[in-house]
Amino acid sequence: MLNDTIINAERELYLTLLELAQQQPSAYEWLKQLPTWLGDIKDKANYAHAPAYQASVARLPNLAVNHVDLNSDTLTIEADLNESQRKQTTALLKQLMPWRKGPFQIGGQIGDDESGIKIDTEWHSDWKWKRVAPHLSRLDGRRVLDVGGGSGYHGWRMAGAGADTVIVIDPSCLFYHQFMAIRHFVGAADASDTGSYRTHYIPVPLEALPEHSQLFDTVFSMGVLYHRQSPFEHLQQLKGQLVKGGELVLETLVIEGDANTVLVPHDRYAQMNNVYFLPSVAALIGWLEKAGFSDVRCVDVAVTSTEEQRQTEWMAYHSLADFLDPNDSTKTVEGYPAPMRATLIAKK
């Protein structure tokens, strides 16, 4: 028997935007485009694997869920799994590999991954959340946009932190269906007092959103800026989604240096061919100020370790260890400084 998880989630998204539009007319532009956004991601002509991903989500079994903890480092759906359910669920979730952002656990209890299915993702996204969360304005009651949110792990954590509404955006067909797989087991555990889902996913890039919507109290852009050929355009697009006085949380690759230091990789950076600009923290602060943000501050700088980003059973391809110089882990295979990430917070 197939489930209606995707249909239900998309209906909840529509109702959330409809309610929002009654307060903020700019949301009507989102509603107009929503059918196209949701239709395109399922179109086999656009994404050859889309029908297979949909089928995997639709075939996930319905479990008797005891509790969902959106605040645990491993986002955990506590449930009793029999052996048949374990095998079926594991097989279906593995059809949605590679899993990059997480971790998640389906079944068992918090801290007990022996009796559940542990999706050990490439990234310890919980480590990033621990670095970022202490510096945020309280998310209670806020409307949040998570740009480039991958599987949605951080979006769930934002809901767990009390956000009134979270909208995750990312154009990946795979990540969209990974989110829906987790939504299937989360169910209504993130529901508001009115029973509406608080966490949603729109499978589009930031530039597809209506400009200057000014709908969100907090906007996150984590791991996106260095993929943009025009970083200032990205900053302006982020700014356009924020309400006046809203908070931007920007996390990106940086290098050491002064306010004039920016690395532009000649070809690849850590084997990525879509990395364009790596500024110093000082330069990035200047960029944000030039883009019109105020109260800009750097709250964290961390070198990415091979413990935080690594190959796992759920992401069996090359990972960070393969992208670093085998004789000097402070450099990439191309000879550039190894990945270092900074988190900055600013006000509109």
Content of β-strand: 15-25%
Number of strands: 17
CATH topology name of the largest domain, in short, is: Rossmann fold
**Strand order within the widest sheet?**
9-8-7-10-11-17-14
Q: State the name of the first-level CATH class of the largest domain.
A: Alpha Beta
Roughly how many Å is the radius of gyration? 20 Å
Major sheet: size, sense and barrel closure?
7 strands, mixed
Helix content: 25-40%
Q: Assign the CATH superfamily of the largest domain.
A: Vaccinia Virus protein VP39
Organism: Psychrobacter nivimaris
Binding site for carboxy-S-adenosyl-L-methionine: 101, 123, 128, 148, 170-172, 206-207, 222, 226, 341
Keywords: Methyltransferase, Transferase, tRNA processing
Subunit structure: Homotetramer.
Describe the structure.
It holds the Pfam family Methyltransf_9. InterPro entries: CmoB (IPR010017), Mo5U34_MeTrfas-like (IPR027555), SAM-dependent_MTases_sf (IPR029063). Belongs to the class I-like SAM-binding methyltransferase superfamily. CmoB family. It catalyses: carboxy-S-adenosyl-L-methionine + 5-hydroxyuridine(34) in tRNA = 5-carboxymethoxyuridine(34) in tRNA + S-adenosyl-L-homocysteine + H(+). The strands form five sheets. This protein has a seven-stranded mixed beta sheet with strand order 9-8-7-10-11-17-14, sandwiched between helices. The protein has a four-stranded mixed beta sheet with strand order 1-2-4-5. Helix 1 packs antiparallel against helix 2 and helix 3 packs parallel to helix 7. 43% of the residues are buried. With 348 residues, it is α/β, with parallel strands linked by helices. It contains ten helices and 17 strands. It folds into two domains: 85 residues, no CATH class; 223 residues, Rossmann fold (3-Layer(aba) Sandwich). Strand 15 and strand 16 form a beta hairpin.
